[in-house]
C-alpha cells in the first residue's frame, strides 16, 4: 500500500514537473518586441490631436473619466485604448503615448509611440474634413522619429529595432462615416469601387512601412458601421424606439473586410516585393464587436445602441463635454460616446485579437 502510494505520488510529481517545463517553454517562446508603433484614427489616437488645430479632440472631461487620476488625455473613451492593452501585454509600457507630446523622454521614444490622429483615414480627403493628420503625414512623423532614434542607437541598431517592432494600423471607418456617406464629393464611386480606392492607399502605406524596416504589421478591419450609435441616429425612422443596427452600412464593412483580407493575402504571395521576414496579420473587430452588441448579456453589457456620454445618440468630441450627462457605470455600455467603445469593450477586442498578435510576434 505504501509502495503504491509512493509510486502514485512520484508519478504525479513527475507529471507536474513536465507540465511546469511545458508552460515555461510556452512563455519563453514568445519573442521579445523592441517597440510598438501605431497609425490610424481616433480608435488608436492617445492624444496627438491635442497638439494640432482641430476640433477633433477629447482632452477634456468627461473623456478619461476612468483613466489614471481621471485625466482626459485625448483618448476618445473613458479609460484605456486597445493599443494600451497591447503595449502592456507585449511588456513595453502601460500606456502608449502620442508622438507629438513634446515632453516624451528618450526611454518613452525607444519603446514606441502612436502617430494616429482622430478623424483621419486612408482617403486623402478624409483628414482634410477635420483638419487632422493624414496617414502620409503620420508616415512622415515616423520617419522623423526614426532619425531621432538613429541619433540615440545608431543606424545598425535602429534597423534591428524596426525589424523587431510591432506595427499596428487602425483606420477606414471615418472614410465611410465622415466622408463617403456624409459628403457628396466621392459619390462618383460606388461603395465597391470606393473600397478598392481605399485599399490601394492601404497597400501603398504598407509598402512604405516595409521600406522603413517594418516586418510585423497588424491591420484592423472595419467594425459593424451600421451599429455605431451615431449611424443609427442619423438613419433611423424612429430615433428613440427603433434603434437597431442599419445593415446596409454594416454590409459595406463586411464586403470591405473581405476585400482587405484578400488583398493582404495577395500582397504576401508576391515574394518579389515582400521583404524577408515580413508578415501582415488581419485583425477582425467586426465579429467581436457585433457579438458584444447582439449577445451583450453574455459580456455583462446592458446598453448597446447609445453611448454613456449625454444622450449617447449623437454626442462625440466637443459635444461630449463637461456639461454632458454621464452614465453611472460605463462598464455596462459597449459605447462611450456615439462612435467610440468604452474601455471595457476595447479590452474585449484586445482579448479576441491576442492569438493573432501572438502568431504575428512569434512568426
Automatic annotation (TrEMBL):
Renumbered to this chain, the signal peptide range is 1-28
Q: Name the family the entry cites.
A: Belongs to the 'GDSL' lipolytic enzyme family.
What is this protein identified as?
A: GDSL esterase/lipase At5g45960
Q: InterPro entries this protein is in?
A: GDSL (IPR001087), GDSL_lipolytic_enzyme (IPR050592), SGNH_hydro_sf (IPR036514), SGNH_plant_lipase-like (IPR035669)
Q: Which SUPFAM superfamilies match?
A: SGNH hydrolase
This protein's species is: Vigna radiata var. radiata
Question: What UniProt keywords are attached to this protein's entry?
Answer: Signal
Q: Which GO terms describe its molecular function?
A: hydrolase activity, acting on ester bonds
Starting at the broadest rank, the lineage of the source organism is: Eukaryota, Viridiplantae, Streptophyta, Embryophyta, Tracheophyta
Pfam families per the UniProt record, alphabetical: Lipase_GDSL
